[in-house]
Amino acid sequence: MGHDTKIDDYCSFMPSVNISGEVNIAKSVYVGTGAKIINQVEIGEGTIVGAGAVVSKSLPANCTAVGIPAKPVKFNGDVL
C-alpha cells in the first residue's frame, strides 16, 4: 500500500492487491486477488473490483469493474 491512501470502513482486500499512493477507497469496497489500483483514483462506495483488474481511473459507487484497464460491467446488479 502506498502513501496517503485512505480506506473507509468494511472494505475487503484479497491476497496480492497492490495500491499505489493517494487512493481514496469508500465504504464497503471489495478488491479481488491480484488487483492493482494506480495512483490518484477514487473508488466509490459498494464497488467490486475483479481479480487481476488494473484500476487506472476512478470508479463510481455500486459498480463491478473488471479488466485491464478496469471498466464497469455492472451498476447496481444490471449488466451493461
Q: Could you say which overall geometry the principal axes of the C-alpha atoms support? A: globular
Output the strand order for the largest sheet: 2-5-8-10-11-12
Spatial separation of the terminal alpha carbons: 31 Å
Unreliable residue runs: none
In total, how many beta strands?
12
Largest sheet: 6 strands, mixed
Which whole number gives the mean pLDDT? 94
| Rg value | 11 Å
* Element pattern in H and E: EEEEEEEEEEEE
Quote the beta fraction.
Answer: 35-45%
Q: Determine the structural class based on helices, strands and strand pairing.
A: mainly beta
Helix content: under 10%
Total number of helical segments?
0
Account of the 3D structure:
There is one protein chain. With 80 residues, the chain is mainly β. 0% of the residues lie in helices and 36% in strands. A 6-stranded mixed sheet has the order 2-5-8-10-11-12, with no helix packed on it. The model has no long low-confidence stretch (mean pLDDT 94).
Characterize this entry briefly.
This protein is 0% helix and 36% strand. It is globular and about 35 Å long. With 80 residues, it is mainly β.
Give the key terms.
0% helix; globular; 80 residues
Strand-helix topology:
Layout (H helix, E strand, L loop, with lengths): L5 E2 L4 E2 L4 E2 L4 E2 L4 E2 L4 E2 L4 E2 L4 E2 L4 E2 L7 E4 L4 E5 L2 E2 L1
Parallel strand pairs: 1-4, 2-5, 3-6, 4-7, 5-8, 6-9, 8-10
Antiparallel strand pairs: 10-11, 11-12
